[in-house]
């Protein structure tokens, strides 16, 4: 009888431990705190990912792998990392009770509609568990791959362009649906660092400025006046896509180039002149801009 009692007791203990382990493993993540956010004064400085499969757990894992203490999600599909809240959220810290109402973070995650991933200029902030934060050695390569945030609303620099002496050498597309995000995505798929738009409907790609734009280097500040790029995008009348012999230039974020497709790159056409054109002279530059 004592032996049976011991077996019964051990069974109860085993059952309890199994239940406790299962409960702990499935325990929900603590609710996020909602903060105001902006691109010019970001709450968290580094963009880890922007993906249609975004989830809270995925974002926390990315920030932990890069050695950051905080993970934030915005617009339903963007993940940001950092160690301290700054910018528009600098007066608050997680748990201080000074955050904005939780209802203002109202966009479902694109990869998990049952969870909230911030909102429009609203950031759902989570503390990354200490056990998942990688050491300096393990995290260095991951951290270097993250993008410093830039404002999507900032105008692209404008450059002189011509077909016989092009600023960017490869034509990616000419479409009545042309938009800035579409062109950037195409150049990213071909693993090019620069994307340029001209004539409202043309998208060009390359790794460096050449031709009529080769007299300057990125950051020299000698781009043409923004008013010379004045043609609305064919697929988005609210955005400018260059002009006649004028190129709106964007830097393609490194994280966007991770989905490189070699076959797509090989499909791009070298630019050629359809007819005799005049070469326009100018001294432009490039700056890193990313639009939503």
From TrEMBL:
Swiss-Prot/TrEMBL keywords: Repeat, Signal
Q: In this protein, which residues make up the domain named WSC?
A: 28-129, 152-253
Q: Where is the signal peptide?
A: 1-22
Q: Which InterPro entries match?
A: Sialate-O-sulfotransferase, WSC_carb-bd
Q: What name does UniProt use for this protein?
A: WSC domain-containing protein
| Organism name | Mycena albidolilacea
């Amino acid at each position: 009888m004592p032996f049976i009692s011991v077996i019964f007791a051990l069974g109860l203990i085993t059952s309890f431990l199994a239940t406790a382990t299962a409960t702990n493993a499935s325990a929900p993540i603590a609710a996020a705190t909602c903060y105001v956010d902006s691109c010019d004064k970001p709450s968290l400085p580094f963009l880890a990912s922007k993906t249609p499969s975004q989830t809270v757990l995925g974002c926390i894992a990315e920030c932990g792998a890069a050695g950051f203490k905080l993970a934030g999600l915005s617009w339903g599909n963007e993940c940001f990392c950092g160690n301290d809240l700054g910018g528009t959220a600098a007066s608050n810290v997680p748990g201080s009770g000074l955050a904005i109402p939780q209802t203002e973070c109202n966009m479902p995650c694109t990869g998990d509609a049952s969870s909230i991933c911030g909102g429009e200029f609203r950031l759902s902030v989570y503390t990354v568990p200490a056990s998942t934060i990688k050491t300096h050695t393990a995290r260095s390569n991951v951290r270097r791959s993250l993008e410093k945030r830039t404002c999507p609303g900032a105008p692209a620099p404008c450059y002189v362009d011509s077909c016989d002496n092009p600023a960017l050498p490869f034509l990616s597309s000419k479409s009545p649906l042309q938009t800035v995000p579409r062109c950037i995505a195409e150049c990213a798929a071909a693993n090019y660092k620069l994307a340029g738009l001209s004539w409202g409907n043309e998208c060009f790609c390359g790794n460096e400025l050449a031709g009529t734009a080769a007299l300057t280097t990125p950051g020299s500040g000698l781009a043409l006046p923004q008013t010379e790029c004045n043609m609305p995008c064919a697929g988005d009348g609210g955005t400018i896509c260059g002009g006649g012999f004028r190129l709106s230039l964007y830097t393609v974020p490194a994280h966007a180039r991770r989905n490189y497709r070699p076959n797509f790159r090989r499909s791009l056409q070298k630019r050629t002149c359809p007819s005799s054109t005049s070469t326009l002279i100018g001294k432009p530059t490039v700056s890193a801009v990313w639009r939503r």
